[in-house]
TrEMBL record:
Residue intervals passing through the bilayer: 6-24, 83-112
PANTHER family per record: STAGE V SPORULATION PROTEIN AC-RELATED, STAGE V SPORULATION PROTEIN AEB
Superkingdom classification of source: Bacteria
Key words of the record: Membrane, Transmembrane, Transmembrane helix
Protein name: Stage V sporulation protein AE
Species, as recorded: Chryseomicrobium palamuruense
Pfam families from the UniProt entry: SpoVAC_SpoVAEB (PF03862)
Matches recorded under InterPro entries: Spore_V_AE, SpoVA
Amino acid sequence: MTFLWAFLIGGAICVIGQLLLDVGKMTPAHMLTTLVVSGAILDGLGLYEPLIDFAGAGATVPITSFGNALVHGVLTEAKENGYIGVLTGMFQVTSAGISSAILFGMIGAIIFKNRPVHYD
C-alpha cells in the first residue's frame, strides 16, 4: 500500500506540473519555480511533513520537496540559532552547492540586466 500511495501522490504532483505547462501556458522555468515555492509554502504551514509521512518517496522525490527542504532547514536553524539560522539553515539541510547556486543566482539576477539573445 505504501508504494501505491507514493505512486499516486508523486504522480499527482507531476500531473499538476504538466497542467501548469499545458493549461496554464507556463514556461518550464515558471512551472518549476511554482512547484518549489508551493513546497516551501506547504512546509511553512506545516503541511508538507505529514504528506511526506503519508506518501514517502512520492512526496520527497518531486521538485516540491526541494522547497520543503530549504524552508525546513531555515525554520529548524532559526529556532536553534535565532536570526543567523535564517541565513545558515538552508546550508545545513540542503547541499551547500545547490543553496549557493540559488543565492548567487538571485543576487546576479538583481544586479545584472537581462539582454535579449539574437540568433542570426
